[in-house]
UniProtKB/TrEMBL annotation, chains A, B:
Protein name: TrkH family potassium uptake protein
TM region(s), chain numbering: 21-39, 51-70, 82-106, 133-158, 167-187, 199-219, 240-258, 303-334, 355-376, 411-433
Predominant subcellular localization, coarse grouping: membrane
Keyword annotations: Cell membrane, Ion transport, Membrane, Transmembrane, Transmembrane helix, Transport
Topology of the protein relative to the lipid bilayer: Multi-pass membrane protein
Amino acid sequence: MSKPAFLRRRLVPSLRHPARVVVLAFAVATLIGTALLMLPMATESGAGTDPIAALFTVVSAICVTGLVVVDTPTHWSIFGEVVVLALIQVGGFGIMTLASLLTLLVSRRLGLRMQLTAQAETKTLGLGDVRTVVGGVIVVSLVVEAVTAVFLGLRFLIGYGESPARAAYLGIFHAVSAFNNAGFALYTDSMVGFAADPWICLPILFAVIVGGLGFPVIFELVRRRNRKRWSLHTRITVPVYFGLLALGTLAVLVLEWGNTLGKLDVHHKLLAGVFHGVMPRTAGFNSLDVGAMHSSTLLINDVLMFIGGGSAGTAGGIKVTTFALLGFVILAEIRGEPTVHVMNRRLTDQVQRQALTVALLGVGAVMAGTITLLSISPFPLDDVLFETTSAFGTVGMSTGITAQLPAAGQLVLIALMFIGRLGPITLASALALRDRARRYELPEERPVVG
Amino acid sequence: MSKPAFLRRRLVPSLRHPARVVVLAFAVATLIGTALLMLPMATESGAGTDPIAALFTVVSAICVTGLVVVDTPTHWSIFGEVVVLALIQVGGFGIMTLASLLTLLVSRRLGLRMQLTAQAETKTLGLGDVRTVVGGVIVVSLVVEAVTAVFLGLRFLIGYGESPARAAYLGIFHAVSAFNNAGFALYTDSMVGFAADPWICLPILFAVIVGGLGFPVIFELVRRRNRKRWSLHTRITVPVYFGLLALGTLAVLVLEWGNTLGKLDVHHKLLAGVFHGVMPRTAGFNSLDVGAMHSSTLLINDVLMFIGGGSAGTAGGIKVTTFALLGFVILAEIRGEPTVHVMNRRLTDQVQRQALTVALLGVGAVMAGTITLLSISPFPLDDVLFETTSAFGTVGMSTGITAQLPAAGQLVLIALMFIGRLGPITLASALALRDRARRYELPEERPVVG
Ligand SMILES: [K+]
Ligand SMILES: [K+]
């Protein structure tokens, strides 16, 4: 299929510089959102919102994080809440679409590509690709959000005696928030009130897990039932994603059994354990009191939140593939193998370096943010590291210190949310799209390692 | 120079499996040391020491760490202290020698090699190499320790009115402890009593810095005045080592100016600042109350302690070259360069993977230890992370929780000290000595990163 030249010209240049496009789009949306949320009508009281709180809320929504400095249900009016919801949807849709398109540009065979007309290695996208991705993301988003909203809405209607309109609103809000891994809730204590209600928790878990897997994986799972035809990306993402989920669940159950899980029945303990096993990947609702959790639970969550979910989805973090690739590199090194092999495929040195760069820059960002917050706030490392990892991983869980941080601290979190949401994607894609060759080679020399 | 076959045969097999030799030697020394320290005569009171406390002290000494569960001056008799000192000397000498020899085996041109007869790429060591290294380490150790001991001894004699014998003992003990970056002190509060005394602090700093640079660097600095003839290893180590030292000093001065530095004059503040800027690389004395330091200071120290000092020296951590190499890899990635170049030399993919492996396994070890300690002790993350990093980096500074940890926690620290001291060296060398080739190559495929 040949495309008209004007279409190709319009699409290609912008996607040639994905970092700029993405950052610019997010900046514009942030400005509009902040202006809207600063309107008096956006607040319940009509008193308006100060710029930093409005900016924080907008960045948190558009980066689908869920950290808040004002209480969502009591501070914002319905208008304010709808603005937040729109920002979540725009942010989630934007990232899924752009990241999926960039993935297509970068990847030689990520499944999707094979569905389409072969386009060789030219690193341009045809209109067909864009249409498939945009259409696919819209369909998946709407279907999952609709199904989740129906279940939640019915439960709010029947189980909690809400009016039909209110139940529909609550259902839609939490469904959109869940699918986009945004973690905003219309309850001051998030999902703590529903910790023992599977009719609320399970639909949310469903939406969170599907959104967090990432569009390329969802696309392959839907289109290709035969596991042997899955791309390497999907074959890595699926087991690691669910492995981390199991690990998180186990950690919460073991470490919190007599603590935050203490008051619940055994089967509600299990429900809340699974709920909090899923949330670090990186949805951010909570059905237990995070601030009362044990230090060890918090640190395990820090690790899980940093790793995050699947690429090109609504989850944050450095992504499960990045984490897994580093694991494969280490394994190959320990075995003394000269090349890194994963499931009968060879990993290029380039991909290994990218994974290293994404992970270590992430560590650097979290460390810099943590040291800054520690030095300007009275909170201990447990709380501060949890807060910065939550912001970087766009998770949104908090031990409760967000609103008490000084303005400078909230700006640090805003920066971390932006870096966490846009950094790895724009960085990885910008890196992968560039292939500058050196004109000459220098002699090798090996410094001592370790 | 050709060597007799029987010499070559004896040296080569053991150095072919350096990991086993090193681990075995440390295990034997640990057993002997523990038996000696459990003798009643090793204690001041004559009451003997329980096995875990004795084992902990021995591992801490032989791994030149300096963490203690019993107070060195009041618990141990002179005999006990001399055993500790001997273990420090054996541990420091053993690691410096073995790591230097392994470095020679691994490295194609690390300066030393060029001084000797050319030995091609055969990965065997001649007797000449071994003699040069062992002799060099002994000379450097004795000279630096002697100079330091003289200065310290004179100060203890003149400034503090100690008897000549006692002053000599104090001088030798702290000189050996300082050069080997061991951090054991004969004062309950380490060097806090001497925070304002440059005649004590400066000789200790001198010994610590020289020991921590690592033997290959010291050797080159002494032998080759012309900086242009330095090996890449030295050219990386020197600026990064002193850069981290400056960074640590600055951090302590800025963050502790009104806190633990509060009571000191300005020029004593500077002295203590430099002292605590040097200690994370990884000597472990303290002239300020570490337990009273700000959370942000502790976290910066965690990072610095994890990085540690120079390779094949008495310092611990993942080593400054490992840290710097990862930085160069990231820089190359961000610039989009297909190969990683450092100071006109190319880094092989193999070296990059080794650095990655050493660093990430280190992170893994510290994280696992931290999560375990958090779950079995009541201490917050600030203290626990500082403790585990201090153990892994064989630093020996503590916020004061070591002795209060349950036995299982102390065993975790023992494991971390062993892993931190032996892990990176044996791992890196074992990796570098192995070059297994694959018989076939698999097709490439690139998963999505970030
Ligand atoms: K989130
Ligand atoms: K030490």
